[in-house]
Structures are given as C-alpha cells and as structure tokens.
Amino acid sequence: MSSPSSISHGHLELQPGADRPIGRSPATGDQWGTRHRNAGGFVPSRDMRHETRDGPATEPRDLVGLPSGVLVTVAATLRCASMDSPLTEISDGDTTWRFDTSFLTSNWTCIWGKGCQGILPHPAAELGQGCCSVGAELDGEDEARRIGALADTLDPSRFQHHATAAEGGVFGDATRSSTRVVDGACIFFNRPGFSGGTGCALHLSALDSGESPIDYKPSVCWQLPIRVDWEPGDDGTEIATVRGWTRRDWGAEGATMAWCCTEGTQAYVGDRPVVESMADELDAIVGTAVYVELRRRLDH
Predict the structure, then answer these.
(1) CA–CA gap between residue 96 and residue 84 (Å, rounded)
(2) For residue 183, is it left (φ>0), alpha (ψ between -120 and 50) or beta?
(3) What pTM does this model have?
(4) Which pLDDT value is given to residue 253?
(5) pLDDT tens figures, 121-137
C-alpha cells in the first residue's frame, strides 16, 4: 500500500497525568507502550484508562461498539484532521497511526465453521482448522512463558491434546518461538467431534473463565486478519499502518494457499463494519484514546 501524496497531520494528546502503557518502540527502541511483538507488529496494553490521577479530566462519553467495561474520557486537547485518502491518520505522541479505512469499514467477518476453507494448499472446510493448520508464531519469551503457563491450567475435558502436551510440551522446539503442530494442526486446536468443543482450547478456556480470548491466545491469533506495519518516521517517531492481512503476509505459505479469507467476497457477509465487530482487538492494538477517535471519524 503506498503512502498518500498529501497528508494532513492531526495531533492527539493524552490528558495530563494520564496512565500510559510501558514498553519499547520497534522503530527507535525508546520506551513508550506495553507491546507484544508478533508477525503483525506490536500491541499496546489493553488496560488503557485515560484519566488524571485526581480523576477524569472530562466527563466519560459512551461510543457504540466500544469494548465492554472500558471507561473513556476524551481530553479537550484532542485534535485530529480528517483525510481525503483511503488512509485515515491519527497522531499520538511519537506514533502516527494510519488506518486502511477501506478494510475497516468493510463487512468482513470470520466465517470459521461457516464455510472457511482454511489455509492449506487445497480447500478443506471439512477439517474446520481455519488458520490453525500451522503453529502460532509467538511474541518472544514473555508470550511463550504466558502460553506455557496457561497450557498447564487447561482441563483435559477442554483440551484434546492434553496428554500429548504433558508428554512433549506445547512448543514447536526448544526455541519456544511457535506452538507445536500435532497431526497437521496447532496442538491447541480441538478437532471436530471432540466432546470438549471444537476450536482453540485456549479460546474455550477463556470463555469458560469469563475472560477475553485476547488475554489467553497468542497475539498473532487474536489479531488476524488485522496487521500492523511499522516504519520509522522523522525525528525518532514511528508510523504504524493498520490494515487487513493479505496473502503475501503469510510468507511462502501464502503462495500455496488455496484460499485467503480477505480475498474475494465469501467472508464479506458481516452485519457490522470491521471497526465495530473487532472493537476489542483494535482497542488492544492502538489504545482506547486512538480507537475512540477512529470511531468518531468513521461514524461521521
């Protein structure tokens, strides 16, 4: 995707004293947001409440489609300029977010179990694997440690390959850089017909616990089909382009896939735009303040 020839730079400022996640920039190495690196980029912390230490600087406002339980306060200093190109840009401190509005306003939806052909070289809807035919690439040692710890908590009644995991672990090899593949799919994938439920055992466990699957699954899994491309900006800043995943993003496997869910029309059957149906995921990727502004722009 090429950059727009003319961009009107807006500016988004968090309130004085606002809590900010902590982490490091992929472009500069500077500390700035709790982020989980994976094939799609870095992801800020989900727990992002914009308020002063003495309480909200402004009255909270509701926005349809925001993740449940998220308190949002929008500072009077929030200033963003709209754009005429397919990319919408929001500047948040040292990070400029660019959003592919053509994908975010589309009615793409995940059709796993409802016609998804999977990512194998041949259509395989009957296997029900979706994009779980390969091991999930993990975001470094922290994510590997979290996934390993969660695996130890899974109930055998909800984890088809519990015994296999207990014997040989859940990672592909000693590097712990991906999940293990067992019989042609991720070790966490429960096959159709399993009494504990088909699909990701981590996902099922999150729902059983009343938690978000975002907090249980590898980050690359819950982000799909959203991808973030990072590049350095001027003067130590960085640019993050949020767009839909494409066939080329799968690497060599993409060339042989018989089907890619963001291509064609088969998966574009949702009843809401992506910016709304994937509200939790986008909020986790860009932070609440940026997501609120994005919704404000796209809703008008």
Answers:
(1) 17
(2) left
(3) 0.73
(4) 85
(5) 999 999 999 999 999 99
Q: What is the pLDDT of residue 252?
A: 86
Best CA proximity match to 70, nearest among 260, 281, 294, 280:
280
| Cβ neighbours of 56 (radius 10 Å) | 16
Helix (H) / strand (E) containing 238: strand 238-244
CA–CA distance, 26 with 230 (Å, rounded to integer):
7
Cα separation, 59 vs 62, whole angstroms: 10
Question: Is 98:242 a contact under the CB 8 Å cutoff?
Answer: yes
Nearest alpha carbon to residue 161 among 141, 137, 179: 179
**What digits encode the pLDDT tens for the residues 215-233?**
999 999 999 999 999 999 9
Give SS3 for 11: strand
Q: Tokens 């008008």 correspond to what residue?
A: 300
Q: How confident is the model at residue 41 (pLDDT cuts 50, 70, 90)?
A: very low
What are the helix (H) ranges across the chain? 101-104, 140-153, 162-168, 201-208, 219-223, 252-256, 274-277, 279-286, 288-298
